[in-house]
Amino acid sequence: MERIRALGAVTDITTAGQIFGLSRSRAYQLAATDTFPARVLRVGSRYRVSVAAILTALGVDPNSPHPNPTTEPST
User: What residues pair up with 46 in beta bridges, in sequence order?
Assistant: First the structure.
């Protein structure tokens, strides 16, 4: 999840497709037919996917605090 959050606010359709296990061509097909697993934004001739929408589609609350990997768990 940390790698997904590190993408920033939005990512391209190819990267989003890889997260869902889709090939590049299948990701574009689903985006074109409005059936991609997360909400897709069309910006000019490009597709962009909100990272928050990806996290939501994966069942992760995009607003939940995420653990800091450099911090040791408290005992």
Answer: 43
